[in-house]
Every structure is written in C-alpha cells, then in structure tokens.
Amino acid sequence: MTTQRPEWIPSDVDTDVPSAARVYDYFLGGAHNFAVDRALAAQIASITPGIGETMRANREFLRRAVRFLVGAGIRQFLDLGSGIPTVGNVHQIAQQIAPDAVVVYVDIDPIAVAHSKAILAGNDRTAVLQADVRDCAKILASPEVRGMLDFTAPMAVLLAGVLHFVPDSDDLPSIVAGLRDALAPGSYMVISNATSEGQPPEIIEAQKLSARTSTEIVLRSKADLLEQFRGLTLVEPGLVYLPLWRPDSPAAVGEDPEQAAAFGGVARKD
Ligand SMILES: C[S@@+](CC[C@H](N)C(=O)[O-])C[C@H]1O[C@@H](n2cnc3c(N)ncnc32)[C@H](O)[C@@H]1O
After folding, report:
1. Mind listing the pLDDT tens digit for each residue in 201-212?
2. Distance of CA 46 from the midpoint of ligand 1 (Å)
3. Ligand 1 pocket, Cβ-based, cut-off 6 angstroms
4. 4 — pLDDT class (breaks 50, 70, 90)
5. Per-residue DSSP letter, 197
C-alpha cells in the first residue's frame, strides 16, 4: 500500500510500514498517521474494541502523573518515548502550573521527533532528542539532556507506554536501573505498561499484530512491573490499572478499570 507523501514526513521514513507512534497518534485522534497505521489500528480494534480507550487512558494517566509531580515540586522532566505531540503534552501540562518547568522529549520515531521539534521551536524550556530508550547512557550524556536538566536536583523520568516496546531480551531491569541510579534523591519515575493480566484471550491476538511495526509490544504482569520500581518507593495508590491512579473524579474511573489493559505507577527515589 502506498500513500501520498506530505512534505512533513522525514525522507528516511518508510510510509508503508506501520509505526507504534503513529498508531497511537491515530487512536488519540491525531493527524500524523498513514493508511498503513490506520489499517493496523482497525485490525487491532476489530479484535480488541476497547483498545482506543486503553490508549486514551494511558495519555490521561500521564497527564495526571505530571500534575501530581508538579504539585510535589518537580520542575524537570525527562520524557522517554514521548510520542507524536498531541494536545496536552507534558510541557503544556507542567508549564501551565509551573512556567519554569523544563522538559526533554526523547523518542526513537523520526516523525515524533520532527513534530516535537516543529511544535517546540521557540520554547527554550524544552529540548527534543531522537534516541533509543535502551541506550540510556547515550541519552543521559547527550547535549540536549545535559543542557536542560540538572542531575544534582530532583527530576521526573517518564516512561509512559514505552517499556512495553522493550523486549525482555534487552534486559529491561538494567535499563531502568541505569536511569534510576542517575537520579538525585527526591526524584520520581513514572511507568505505564500494557498487560494481559485480567484480560480476555483476544489481547494476545492483538499483541501479535503489533509485530507488524518495528516495535512489538511486550505484555507484562503486575509482578514483573513491580520489579522495575526496585529501589524506589511507590506513591499511593501504587501500581494499578491506569484509570485507578489518582482519578480526577470517581466517575472518571468507569465500571471496569481493568479494561484499560495496562498498569501505571509513580515512585520516588528516597
Ligand atoms: C504509546 S506511545 C507513548 C507516548 C507517550 N509517552 C504517552 O504515554 O502518551 C510510545 C512511544 O514510544 C516510542 N518508542 C518505542 N520504542 C522506543 C525506544 N526503544 N526508544 C524510544 N522510544 C521508543 C514510540 O515511537 C512511541 O512514540
């Protein structure tokens, strides 16, 4: 399947292969996705009709977490796997409450990075870096990160909806530990990850479809995810199905929060 090529697409992007970032953008109602992404999204949704709600629940979890962190005094954010910018990005949420907040966005996807750069041009409290979260040493040493973030002061590392693109063979615990060890006391880590726990069997079929992108999804159990918070103290209510994490109102939780098919949590480095 070929598509007309708008000029905003970086030349090295293959528009005939779906991308996780663009499928997510589609489910969030964004405009930076192609026919292949929409076709894959439709196929996934035909197996798991609640998938769009899962993606929106993830984004809403991230926004609530950022508001919580700003309330806790955090003014520096390292957003890993930040995605294609949509309304209500991390810097918008954070800077609305604390105009002095700084954010570094990092994503592996060239379109996510190109759009982030375009949107953030002129915002001197943000930076954008194209990098792989698995290479955290490179990220932490990059001029974008070093120029914007002070590692002697508390910050928040955001890993929302990204670790499920890191296969177990890449030694997830050591990636997370590398990030955690770089943080000053008083810092926070945010993680959300898709799960098959409490889900109908179709979730496995949908997961297999994600292998058509270059980043197959890894569904993780609550126990596996709790391991990633080792050395940190989870803030209330702990690691929970996304809608249950500090909801804005009881009505916002809905009747079946487990249908979000993902866990989220926020933890502090003491
Ligand atoms: C589901 S989106 C999440 C976006 C945003 N963090 C949120 O929660 O709304 C996942 C993003 O992770 C990015 N991603 C996947 N694997 C990655 C990797 N190894 N390194 C950096 N980013 C990655 C994708 O390109 C995509 O933009």
Report:
1. 999 998 998 888
2. 23
3. 20-21, 24, 58-59, 62, 81-83, 107-109, 112, 132-134, 160-162, 165, 215
4. low
5. T
